[in-house]
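Give me C-alpha cells for this 198-residue protein.
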Amino acid sequence: MLVCLREWGEMLHQWWNIDTYNHILLVPLIVAWLVWLKADQLARIAPRPLAWGLPAVAAGLALWLVGRMTGIKLLAHAGAVGAVQGAIITILGARASVLLALPIAYLAFLVPFGDEIIPYLQAITADIAVALTLWSGVPAVIDGIYIDTPAGLFIVAEECSGVKFLAAMVTLAVLVAFTRFCSWKRRALFLLASVIVP
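Here you go.
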C-alpha cells in the first residue's frame, strides 16, 4: 500500500485541517471499538489468508490509479482505502472478515466526501430559503443560488449548503443504525432521517 502513501497524506491533511472532515479523525477510533466488540469471537477464529481478497486489492489499486491519472482525488482516495479493505480481507480470511464486516466496511468513511455535492445542496438551501421568505410575506425571486428581495440580493454560500453536517451525520448514523437496530427497515428509516434532517 506504499504506492498510495501520497493519497493517505492528502486525506490526513483534509481530516486535520478542513473542518468539514474533522469528524473523520474519529473513524479509526470507531473502527477499533467495533473490532474490540468482536474480540472474544475473533479470538476463536484463526486467520486463514484468502486468495479471493486479492481481486478486491486489485480493484482498489485500479480505482486509485484511475483517480491518480485523471486527477480526481475522490477516486484516488477511495481506491487507496479500498485496497486496504481488500488487504484486510485477504489476510484475515472469510470467517474473520464476515465477523468484522461492519468495521471493514466502515473504513470507507475515511474517504473525505461531500465537496462534490455542495452545488446541489446550495440549490436546495436556496429553494428552502425562498419558500420560507415567500411564506413570511416577503417577495423574493430566485436565480440559482441568488435570492433577490426588497432588502437586497443574497447568495447562498458554500458554508450554508450543510455538507459538513450531512457528512458527519451520515458517518455517525451508519454506526448507530448497525449497532443499535436489528431491523433493516428501522436502519433504512434512521439512515433516511440522517440525510433529510441535516
